[in-house]
């Protein structure tokens, strides 16, 4: 009746996951009860859950990512503390448990923290920067978000019901085959990723179409902001790479569920093929993550240097170069699989070549600062911290790209330090910069700068204290994923790394404090003009937060810094340059519960597939199909905002801007 | 030292000599030509890149500091957004560096390919390596003996390793001897190493292979040629025989196995394993009784 | 400023009767593209992503082609007559789907429903033939669990079959929508996507027909 699901799936005999699970369930229940008691549910349903507005969806993505950051970081705390304790000792986490934790850490951080964070920021800012009202397919956007959330939910359910994968964040066969992983852990992983992968693919399609087909009049390709170029490159990679992930995980699922032999040890399966296929997705994936971060830094460095980005054309060419090259280097993840000198050398050289456009970008940011007036806001601190840290991480990457060097360091903690160096230094610092930069635009008030800077310094110092010892211990021969060890020379370094992660914990605590304090004192830090940073691109021409329709009239773009050039003219004249436009009613897409309901059925289907409750699987699939049909049967797709309302909102914006201009002229 | 602090300080004392030992990390103090070659490539690439990276970082911090908004001495160039000369230099420097590094990569990837035999006048020793869950089996086909979790080899002789796995992926890695390589079921990878001097070199598996993975440590004992002959002779005197029945016992999952030897090996056993005439390793004991599982875990020692 | 916009009097394929207003197409500097362009473009990107997914299955098939584990090989199994019939069904169905598109362009309910029905029936025949082929293999001990080669064959061809089945479900829904709501613009956009999907599946079948079946029946000596 319930497939493989029994009461034994709940870890009554394991205190740590039981306590953790109970705590999480209690906290979630408490939040839900509080929200319901306060009467917020209708508001949340109407304004957020069924919203198809890219701004709302972007914020929800970032919120999901922030919560998953805490979950993934707790995993990291447990891993570092275990390794700091487990020298000639068992530590406090038995292998079955430790193995799930490092697998969950990687899976959550990549799929449910980094991806949602960058997708959330792209969702929020890109249409505003392009001067348009929304993405190409708003309802599809909502479905994408909710499917991602469904995947995150499934992974977290595994904490309480059943177990998670014990294979690492990529489930290499034969270890991930049924013979060596007979439990449900790998199935939780596979279905969660497949479900959220569909969401991500749809985001890719959505954003590529938006950037290429929906831009303000006059915005040719060369006039697009760099963040939109990196959005395009990242989403082209999503479209190119995620189908490979879907296919490969489907093959593993077929092996596990129906006894196929793609990667099995028996009947001529080929486990090496999994490595090739998964890394053909896996390497583009890391560039999917880092390219938007590069775009954020381009915006932040230009804004806070008071200068346009240096050599835009080069930046665009470098971005597209990275995009294409990232598809050509996947074998560097398994140089040690014995492919021979020719193959290894070709992929090694290709991996080094990708450092060229990346280096060009660093120098362009450098020369953006040159001749500027650099303001050290917390966003700019993240950018400078990124530049230094990412250069070091990139250097260790080029080191590893040399096959003989990799023969010494493959899978060691040196490798772990390298990829954390580029992911934390690049992606995490990037999303933190983007979060700080666009927060006022999203919520109408600025975050506390002092706490933000303190958080930055904790993260920066903590990162180096946590990961430089890992470089060292990797050079001492230590490999990754060891639940215990007995080489004395590794021990002190792992102690230091444990201290480092505590410093990062302080950074995270400060970020939480920053949010809390900023919300409580938001009245004093309101963004009244919509342009708190003296920005250069179009999103800063709207109010904070922007109205549902973004722009009353789509702007006419005549150069590559449309907002800045108009603002400078207005400053020179001391008054607004553009005349009041003719206001017309605006059609906006209607809210839809399609995303939320589809995700509900996705969680149901995923859960029942994991536990092999076949009747529930059919119910879930039928429910999902019925949801599509119900959506297809909708007759009215849009609501109209009357011209008078548009006029009211826009006139208020223009008045605030004019007042700010007059005040500036007086000073 | 004061009373309260002395206890803490004493417990940290082992850290001191150990940290000094860190000045000689294993990977950077090779004991053989392969490790030496790998290390040269690593350090050369590092030096070339540091020559670019260090000035770049200094410039980043320097520009950020000099052009800070409060510095009125710095020139403000609000329209400086392009320079052809800078564009040319900025593209050329990375391209030239990569040309250089790429050349090193091409040459060294071929010279240091693990399957490339070592040039030596000494007679090579053949060792067949099988990665099991969770121990290493070393078969000496020429000497017809086998060893678990300890590889005894003559110093100064090239080692021709043929490596496979009985179940899941593992990686054979002896950090002080150099290159590592995958161990995969149904396939043989070839690795050529050499220990120049006698000594004990630690080895491990560098690819996560399951719950018993941390216990896949082994030692390489490089000894003089005479000692190796003595060891071979002594091994042939005592210990069990590695036939098919003994091998099937090895296929069961066990961890933290104390090293021991076999006094003879069934002929062609390694080929039988590689060509899948023998079954792969069993997985975890799902259907077996808890008692059997307890036996498996009893071997765990720290 | 930008070059003069390209203006079409009407879309000759999708709007032969000239019912829709003229559209500005090409070069994004003209402002946001019209809805029909956006929908079609987005769906094309989806199709390309689907082709990449199939490419991964093709790659696996190529790698595992010789991994028959002592079991039956392609040469021993494939029956080209069955494959030819399947191909004829799909090619014919692409033609009838094109007819349906023309009927939609002329807003003709009767011919739309008829052409879609024939398309669906031809698709159904294809699926039935494929299921028969698969069950035949299984009963001869050549099921997907026999060897890696057979796993990859069943997955690649089966994935295409699943896509066709999903398309048939979509086809039925489109017939119901046209019947219930007429030729409203958003339903025509959806139908544009459906027909693109149907034609793309035919193209993928051509690849399967060539790379799997025609290559598969070659005698082993001729293969590298």
| Count of beta strands of chain B | 13
Name the chain pair whose interface involves the most residues.
Answer: A-B, 100 and 101 residues
> How many beta-strand runs of chain C?
2
Given this structure, which CATH class of the largest domain in chain B is correct? Answer: Mainly Beta
The shape of chain B is: elongated
Tally of DSSP helical segments of chain B: 8
CATH classification, class level of the largest domain in chain C? Mainly Alpha
CATH fold call of the largest domain in chain C: Four Helix Bundle (Hemerythrin (Met), subunit A)
Q: How many discrete structural domains of chain B?
A: 2
**How far is the first residue's CA from the last residue's CA of chain C?**
57 Å
| Alpha-carbon Rg of chain C, integer | 21 Å
- Order of adjacent strands in the largest pleated sheet of chain C: 1-2
CATH superfamily of the largest domain in chain C: Cytochrome c oxidase, subunit III, four-helix bundle
Determine the structural class of chain B based on helices, strands and strand pairing: alpha+beta
Task: Please name the defining characteristics of this protein.
heterotrimer, B: 302 residues, alpha+beta, Helix Hairpins, Immunoglobulin-like, six-stranded mixed sheet, 13 strands, 38% helix, elongated, C: 224 residues, mainly alpha, Four Helix Bundle (Hemerythrin (Met), subunit A), 2 domains
Structural overview:
The complex is a heterotrimer of chains A (667), B (302) and C (224). By secondary structure, chain A is mostly helical. Chain A has helices at residues 15-37, 41-49, 54-85, 95-130, 138-160, 185-213, 226-258, 271-305, 312-325, 341-353, 355-369, 378-400, 403-409, 413-443, 449-475, 491-520, 562-573, 594-610, 614-632, 643-666; strands at residues 586-589, 638-641. Chain A has a domain at 289-525: Cytochrome c oxidase-like, subunit I domain (Cytochrome C Oxidase, Chain A). The longest helix of chain A is centred in the N-terminal third of the chain and has 36 residues, at 95-130. Chain B folds into 2 domains: 24-72 and 81-111, Helix Hairpins, CATH 1.10.287; 125-274, Immunoglobulin-like, CATH 2.60.40. Helix content of chain B is 38%, strand content 21%. In chain B, α3 (33-66) packs antiparallel against α4 (84-111). The longest helix of chain B is centred in the first third of the chain and has 34 residues, at 33-66. In chain C, strands 1-2 form a two-stranded antiparallel sheet. Chain C is mainly α and 224 residues long. Chain C has 2 domains: 1-33, no CATH class; 35-222, Cytochrome c oxidase, subunit III, four-helix bundle (Four Helix Bundle (Hemerythrin (Met), subunit A), Up-down Bundle), CATH 1.20.120. Chains in contact: A-B, A-C. At the A-B interface, α4, α8, α10, α11 and α12 of A face α2, α3, α4 and β9 of B.
């Amino acid at each position: 009746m319930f497939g493989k699901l029994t009461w034994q799936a709940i870890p009554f005999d394991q205190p740590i996951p039981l306590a953790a699970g109970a705590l999480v369930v209690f906290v979630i229940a408490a939040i839900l009860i509080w929200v319901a008691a306060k009467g917020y549910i209708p508001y949340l349903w109407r304004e957020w859950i069924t919203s198809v507005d890219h701004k709302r969806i972007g914020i929800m993505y970032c919120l999901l990512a922030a919560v998953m950051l805490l979950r993934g970081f707790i995993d990291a705390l447990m891993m570092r503390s275990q390794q700091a304790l487990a020298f000639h000792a068992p530590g406090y986490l038995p292998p079955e448990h430790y193995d799930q934790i490092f697998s969950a850490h990687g899976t959550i951080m990549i799929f449910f923290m980094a991806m949602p964070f960058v997708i959330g920021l792209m969702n929020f800012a890109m249409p505003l920067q392009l001067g348009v009202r929304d993405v190409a397919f708003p309802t599809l956007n909502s479905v994408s978000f909710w499917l991602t959330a469904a995947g995150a939910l499934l992974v977290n359910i595994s904490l309480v019901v059943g177990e998670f994968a014990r294979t690492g964040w990529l489930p290499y066969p034969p270890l991930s085959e049924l013979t060596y992983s007979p439990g449900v852990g790998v199935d939780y992983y596979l279905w969660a990723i497949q479900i959220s992968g569909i969401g991500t693919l749809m985001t890719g399609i959505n954003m590529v179409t938006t950037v290429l087909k929906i831009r303000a009049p006059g915005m040719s390709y060369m006039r697009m902001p760099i963040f939109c170029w990196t959005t395009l490159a990242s989403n082209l990679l999503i479209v190119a790479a995620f189908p490979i992930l879907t296919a490969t995980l489907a093959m593993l699922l077929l092996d596990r569920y129906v006894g196929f032999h793609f990667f099995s040890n028996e009947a001529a399966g080929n486990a090496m093929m999994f490595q090739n296929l998964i890394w053909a997705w896996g390497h583009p994936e890391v560039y999917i993550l880092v390219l938007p971060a590069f775009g954020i830094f381009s915006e932040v460095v230009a804004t806070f240097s008071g200068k346009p980005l240096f050599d835009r054309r080069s930046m665009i060419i470098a971005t597209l170069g990275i995009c294409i090259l990232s598809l050509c280097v996947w074998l560097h993840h398994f140089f040690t699989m014995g492919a021979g000198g020719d193959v290894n050398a070709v992929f090694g050289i290709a991996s080094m070549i990708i450092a060229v456009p990346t280096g060009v970008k660093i120098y362009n940011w450098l020369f953006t600062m040159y001749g500027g007036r650099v303001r050290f806001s917390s966003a700019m601190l993240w950018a400078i911290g990124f530049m230094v840290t990412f250069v070091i991480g990139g250097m260790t990457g080029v080191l590893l790209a040399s096959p003989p060097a990799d023969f010494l360091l493959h899978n060691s903690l040196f490798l772990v330090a390298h990829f954390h160096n580029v992911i934390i230094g690049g992606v995490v610092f990037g999303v933190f910069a983007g979060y700080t930069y666009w927060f006022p635009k999203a919520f109408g008030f600025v975050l506390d700068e002092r706490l933000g800077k303190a958080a930055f310094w904790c993260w920066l110092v903590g990162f180096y204290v946590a990961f430089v010892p890992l470089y060292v211990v990797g050079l001492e021969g230590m490999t990754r994923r060891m639940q215990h060890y007995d080489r004395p020379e590794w021990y002190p370094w792992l102690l230091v790394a444990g201290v480092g992660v505590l410093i990062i914990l302080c950074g995270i605590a400060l970020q939480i404090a920053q949010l809390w304090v900023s919300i409580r004192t938001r009245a004093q830090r309101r963004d009244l003009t919509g342009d708190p940073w003296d920005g250069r691109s179009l999103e800063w021409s709207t109010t904070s937060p922007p109205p549902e329709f973004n722009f009353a009239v789509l702007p006419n773009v005549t150069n590559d810094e449309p907002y800045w050039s108009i603002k400078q003219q207005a400053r020179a004249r001391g008054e607004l340059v553009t005349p009041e436009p003719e206001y017309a009613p605006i059609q906006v897409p209607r809210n839809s519960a399609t995303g939320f309901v589809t995700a509900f059925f996705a969680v149901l289907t995923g859960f029942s597939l994991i536990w092999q409750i076949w009747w529930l699987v059919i119910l879930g699939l039928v429910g999902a199909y019925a949801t599509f049909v119900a959506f297809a049967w909708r007759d009215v797709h849009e609501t109209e905002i009357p011209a008078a309302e548009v006029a009211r909102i826009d006139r208020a914006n223009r008045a605030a801007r004019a007042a700010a201009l007059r005040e500036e002229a007086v000073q | 030292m004061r009373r309260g602090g002395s206890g803490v300080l004493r417990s940290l004392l082992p850290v001191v000599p150990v940290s000094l030992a860190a000045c000689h990390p294993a990977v950077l103090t090779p004991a053989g030509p392969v490790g030496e070659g790998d290390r040269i490539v690593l350090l050369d690439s590092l030096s070339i890149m540091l020559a670019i990276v260090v000035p770049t970082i200094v410039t980043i911090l320097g520009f950020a500091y000099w052009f800070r908004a409060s510095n009125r001495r710095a020139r403000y160039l609000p329209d400086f957004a392009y320079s052809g000369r800078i564009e040319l230099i900025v593209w050329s420097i990375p391209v030239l560096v990569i040309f250089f590094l790429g050349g090193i990569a091409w040459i060294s990837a071929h010279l240091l390919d693990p399957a490339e035999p070592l040039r030596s006048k000494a007679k090579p020793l053949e060792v067949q390596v099988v990665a099991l869950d969770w121990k290493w089996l070393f078969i000496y086909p020429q000497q017809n003996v086998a060893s678990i979790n300890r590889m005894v080899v003559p110093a100064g002789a090239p080692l021709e390793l043929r490596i496979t796995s009985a179940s899941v992926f593992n990686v054979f890695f002896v950090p002080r001897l150099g290159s590592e390589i995958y161990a995969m079921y149904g396939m043989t990878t070839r690795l050529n190493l050499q220990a120049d001097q006698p000594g004990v070199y630690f080895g491990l598996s560098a690819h996560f292979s399951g719950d018993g993975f941390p216990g896949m440590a082994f030692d390489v004992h490089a000894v003089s040629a005479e000692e190796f002959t003595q060891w071979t002779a002594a091994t042939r005197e005592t210990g069990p025989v590695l036939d098919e029945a003994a091998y099937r016992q090895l296929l069961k999952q066990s961890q933290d196995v104390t090293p021991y030897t076999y006094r003879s090996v069934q002929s062609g056993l390694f080929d039988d394993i590689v060509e899948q005439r023998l079954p792969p390793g069993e997985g975890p004991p799902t259907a077996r009784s808890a008692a059997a599982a307890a036996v498996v875990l009893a071997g765990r020692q720290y | 400023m930008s070059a003069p916009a390209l203006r079409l009097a009407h879309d000759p394929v999708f709007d032969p009767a000239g019912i829709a207003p003229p559209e500005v197409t090409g070069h994004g500097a003209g402002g946001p593209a019209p809805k029909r362009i956006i929908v079609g473009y987005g769906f094309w990107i989806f199709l390309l992503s689907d082709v990449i997914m199939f490419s991964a299955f093709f790659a696996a098939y190529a790698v595992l082609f010789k991994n028959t584990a002592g079991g039956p090989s392609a040469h021993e199994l494939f029956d080209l007559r069955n494959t030819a019939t399947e191909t004829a069904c799909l090619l014919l169905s692409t033609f009838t789907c094109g007819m349906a598109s023309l009927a939609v362009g002329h807003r003709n309910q009767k011919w739309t429903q008829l052409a879609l029905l024939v398309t669906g029936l031809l698709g159904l025949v294809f699926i039935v033939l494929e299921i028969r082929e698969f069950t035949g293999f299984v009963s001869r001990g050549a099921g997907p669990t026999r060897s890696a080669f057979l796993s990859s064959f069943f997955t690649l061809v089966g994935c295409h079959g699943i896509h066709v089945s999903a398309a048939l479900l979509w086809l039925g829904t489109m017939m119901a929508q046209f019947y219930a709501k007429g030729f409203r613009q958003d339903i025509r956009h959806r139908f544009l996507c459906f027909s693109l999907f149907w034609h793309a599946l035919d193209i993928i079948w051509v690849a399967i027909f060539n790379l799997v079946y025609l290559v598969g029946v070659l005698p082993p000596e001729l293969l590298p």
